[in-house]
Amino acid sequence: MIVGHSYGGYTARIFVDLFREDVAGLGLLESAHQDQWERLPPIIKQLLDASMSDLREKARAADDGRLRSDSVQVPDFFRHSALEAAYRAEQVDPDHYRTSLGEMEHMAVTITQLRNVAPLGTLPLVVLSSARGFDRYRGSPIPVEESNRVWLELQDELAALSEDAVHMVSQTAGHTLQYDEPEVVVGVIRELVLRARMRPSELEH
To answer: What is the pLDDT of residues 165-183, one digit of tens each?
Structure first.
């Protein structure tokens, strides 16, 4: 099973295309769409581009050892759990920022790859998306309602990539579904496993 969240949806889809025989199912959680930058309000891409300088500065600070794990702002999902220390360590790790920069700087190449992947056919696919992913930007220049509407249209298109797909939409979680509703994400993975196990018997009939 391959499951990808946000930008990880790009990576997951390319992996499936390269190693199709090794993949029994695909889960896309609030996955990026190859056409999103042309169809979402332009200010979203403008803000993303503007944030690159901050990301590069954090990468330099991590390389220089200027980031402190005890100063990291920890999301509630990780706070006071066995994962908190790992999260703090990741947020000061130079490799974390090098990877993020690499993804952003090579996004155009990745999108070109996605435009050339083969159809998924009947590969079991579950798309889990949020109806409120842009709500956290209320009060900013981002047009929230339009962004949420276009995002769901893009997610519907992702669900159409397979003939054996389910699209689930959360009305309460935000973009980080795995933090807001981890039990739903676990349910998605179980659904993929169940459907993958059912496939051989279906093909025999």
So the answer is: 999 999 999 999 999 999 9
